[in-house]
Amino acid sequence: MAISSTNQTSWWKRCKTWFHRWGSPAWFYRVSGRLIPWLWCGFFLLAIPGLIWGLFIAPPDYLQGNSYRIIFIHVPSAWQSMLIFAIMAVLALIGIVWRIRVAETLAMCCAPIGAAFTVITLATGSLWGKPTWGTYWQWDGRMTSELVLLFLYLGVIGLHQAIDEPRRAARAAGLLALVGVVNLPIIHYSVEWWTTLHQGTTVSLMGESSIDPSMLWPLLLMVLAVKLYFGANLLTRTRNALLVQDRDKNWVREMVSST
Amino acid sequence: MSMLHIALHDLKLAFRQRTEWFQPLWFLLLVVALFPLGIGPQPALLSQIAAGVIWIAALLASMLSLESLFREDANNGRLEQWLLLDTSLPALAGGRMLAHWLVTGLPVILISPLLATWMQLPATAHGVLLITLLLGTPTLSLLGGLGAALTLGSRQGGMLLALLIAPLSVPTLVFATSAVSDTAAGYQAQTQLLILAAILLFAITLVPFAIAAALRIYLQE
After folding, report:
1. Which residue of B has its CA nearest to A157?
2. Residue of A146, A163, A218, B91 with fewest CB within 10 Å of its CB?
3. Which residues pair with A65 in a beta bridge?
4. What are the chain A neighbours of B195 within 8 Å (beta carbons)?
């Protein structure tokens, strides 16, 4: 018993040390640099077949014809835009509670990517709206929440840029992200208050989805591809931000002098 | 020094410098008066948009006085003193927000019958407008306090502050205006009022802690 318990603690300790290592900018820079090429590879391996399948091979919709094909961009970026806000809030919480600089930096690097996905979602959505609903913009529930989401992202980015002292900026903007994530469900349901002309959800994880498998598979490929793209982009941005923050530190000097 | 001390102290200051509570009120009257001038005085049109106009004007007016909320205390070191007090920081922040609401929110509520008359809101909806303002403006004050605390360390406070808190006040705006227009159209608005009350309770419980966290971040504590 005694042996197994010490084994367990050493295993647990190793896990903890491994996890804590990510808090060190030097370690993060090195390991993420090795990860990024793989993420890009995965992204291209999924996105190229996904796009070809979705845009050329999948059958046209019986009602919407070919215009529905924008779904392969629209839906992955819409999901990603919301997921990134949640990831940003979790990272910000870690940064604020345990004061880990890498987590703060990661959270702040999430914001521009999330804002970009939100813009893509709004743009593709309104392009899709023209042929199917007959209008580029309608104040319907989901479109309006997405717009508010964009404003929240812009708020986080704006606050981060307005404060000169970098760590104070990251923590204040992180706190705003946390407040935003608590508010988002309330905003979402308040905006849903007006009944909408947005089509109902067609893909669901639980139970039958109402989308045909020939359209579902390329969509899933694109959803995964977008996640890998986010990972690669986030790590690249964070590496750059850490380099700038630590430009006077030894690990950066050693790295620069060795290359 | 307790929560009430802070509130009383702020109230005393506010009544010595009349501009602090008078100017937002003046702004509110002016903005609401601009709408009939801008879109024409037809009573049917005005009464239809009355709820939205009054509420948006109230939202804008509540943002006016926010920038100075913690700025002066941050500059003269009083904020550091707050940390040393026995009273917890969220309670002190709550006291300040209470005073802020009494100075800027309450006058808006008192003057709202005049605004409703200007905007030709049906008399049946005046009471509900009053209730939505009573339930909604404290939420706006609290969110504004959070914005003020977050932007303390920034260079351009005022504009950024408005950009940060406007998206957060969307739920209050949606439910308040829909309560007023539903009542004006002859429906019951109890649901919206209850949700407004729920949002207010949620804000009173949590926002003072968020304000305290933001102040601590500013003080690098």
Report:
1. B164
2. B91
3. A61
4. 190
Q: What type of residue sits at position A103?
A: A
How far does CA B78 lie from the centroid of its chain?
24
Closest CA to A85 of A173, A165, A169, A161: A173
Interface confidence (ipTM) of the complex: 0.90
Confidence of residue A106 (pLDDT cuts 50, 70, 90): very high
Give the Cα separation of B221 and B215 in Å (integer). Answer: 9
In total, how many domains does chain A have? 1
pLDDT tens for each residue of A220-253:
999 999 999 999 999 999 999 999 999 888 888 8
CB contact under 8 A, A172 and B163: no
Q: CA-nearest residue of chain B to A164?
A: B154
Our count of domains for chain B comes to 1
pTM of the model: 0.90
B107: containing domain: 3-219
3-state percent helix, strand, coil for chain B, nearest multiple of 5: 85, 0, 15
Residue B84 CA to residue B103 CA, distance in Å, equals: 27
Mapped onto helix, strand or coil, the DSSP state of residue A197 is coil
Rounded distance between C-alpha atoms, residue A219 and residue A58, angstroms: 10
Alpha carbon of A191 to those of A8, A187, B150, B171, B177: distances in Å?
50, 6, 26, 7, 12
- The secondary structure of residue A200, as a DSSP letter, is P
Nearest CB among B156, B178, B214 relative to A193 is that of B178
* Contact yes or no for A175 and B150 at CB 8 A: yes
Residue from the list B160, B174, B202 with its beta carbon closest to the beta carbon of A158: B160
SS (H, E, C) A152-184: HHHHHHHHHHHECCHHHHHHHHHHHHHHHHHHH
- Asked if residue A11 belongs to a domain, the reply is no
Q: Which two tokens stand for residue A195?
A: 């009944």
Chain A interface test: which of B174, B177, B193, B211 (most A C-beta within 10 Å): B174
The CA angle A199-A200-A204, to the nearest 5 degrees, is: 135
Q: Round to whole Å and give the CA distance between A19 and A7.
A: 18
Contact assignment for A171 to B168 by CB distance below 8 Å = no
Q: Which residues of A touch B174 (CB under 8 A)?
A: 190-191, 193
Cβ distance A159 to B164 less than 8 Å, yes or no, reads yes
Q: Is B11 on the interface with A (CB under 8 A)?
A: no
Q: Check pLDDT > 70 for residue A208.
A: no
Domain interval for residue A122? 35-198+214-246
Q: Is A111 inside any structural domain?
A: yes
Distance from CA of A98 to the nearest CA of B (A): 13
| Spatial distance between the Cα atoms of B106 and B65, rounded to a whole number of angstroms | 14
- A148, B175: Cβ pair inside 8 Å? no
Does residue A185 sit in helix, strand or coil? helix
